[in-house]
Amino acid sequence: MDAHRNSQKSKKMKANTLKSLLELDSMYRGRNSEHDGILSLISYCSYTYTFIDPSESPSLHCLKRDKLIKLLSLLKLMRNGTCLPDEVLTPLFSMIQDHLFRRLPPPNTSILPDEDDLIATPAATWPHLQPIYDILLCLVINMEPKTLGEYIKDSFILNLLALFKSDDLRERESLKKLYHQIYSKFHGSRSFIRKAMNDVFLHYTFEADEKHAGIGDLLEICGTIINGFSVLLKEEHRLFLMRVLIPLHRPNGMQAYHRQLAYCVYQFVEKEPVLGVAVVRGILRYWPTTNCHKEIVLIGELEDLVENMETEEYKAIALPLCKRITKCFNSQNSQVAERALYMWNNEQFVKMVLQAEAVEEVLSVVVEGMEENLRGHWSKSVRQLTQNVKEMLVEMEPVLYARQLNQSHSEAETRRKQRWERVEMAAKLNQFIQESLRSGLPD
């Protein structure tokens, strides 16, 4: 009885084992077939076209793009990317690197437009680059960081970062999405990624002698990262603001990425308003001397910062800020002068001026600048705006304004007398020298 039962059990186990082996063999064959198809596509797509060689066939260009799109479709069907073995990932990443990590053409040296965006130069190879970027993004999204860590190393991240110099806006958009995903998933590489971006910013600010098309895109990534910082900022993050972001106001091409830069800076000040003092001082330190467009955008940034500052913080920078704004509305460039005068339409700015500890010293500078405009600025609209601001201040602080006006006239008269005395002294000295020379000549 037991022997019969053991015999039946043995047959059943044998049958189950045989069945499972057949299923595994079927799965293995299917998987190999699928991988063979992927490997075949990778092998075909590994050849790179220049798109400028006349011997290259346009039909082959289209065929390769179709193969790349088919490869992307196969990868998207794999919801769990860990099913890709190393024998697939190794040639796949080799193909990706051969296409992406290439020598970029020289940067476009065209004069920057007034708008924020740089002049874009489309990449001729983009029909093939686009699906390559999509394939890499698909891998990063679907696969585990532990598996991809063997391929997306520090050197790979640095090579991606170098591609932000591309003049093609489409390529930089793809890079932004990819970089966001890498930063989001590869937690262990976050510190390295931030440091690598900092190095790009510092090189551009202090060493580069050519434009970098991707500074605004990198700052956009930084804006997302800063948004995730805790309210109690780490010292590392404050140093990033002071040593990297604020000096980025220095380059002449700043207006091309100013919108993204201002957003990053504002994020810091919003989290810790006390940083607003250091930011304002930094912007004033890097104020341009001949770039009127840059002055206009910086005035706007200062106005936004003032909106987020408390009176106690403003007291520390009231005088240097008002001195700069006064110089701006005395500017011979009417656009700069008008933009500076519009600052006085900001209630928060006016309130802080009148509540500053050194309000008399601040108003003394402002009143003198306004009177100078009213006496002789060439632009009628600037003179009219100056008159409007003067009437507003007289209405709000009539006694204080009148006192500062008298003091300004008195100081102006004193300076006039001192200048005249120096002229008379120079004339007497010149006369004495001439007489001495004549007396020393022989008869």
TrEMBL record:
SUPFAM superfamilies: ARM repeat (SSF48371)
Stored Gene3D superfamilies: Leucine-rich Repeat Variant
Pfam families: B56
InterPro entries named among the record's database cross-references: ARM-like, ARM-type_fold, PP2A_B56
Protein name per UniProt: Serine/threonine protein phosphatase 2A 57 kDa regulatory subunit B' alpha isoform-like
Organism, as annotated: Salvia divinorum
Spans through the membrane: none
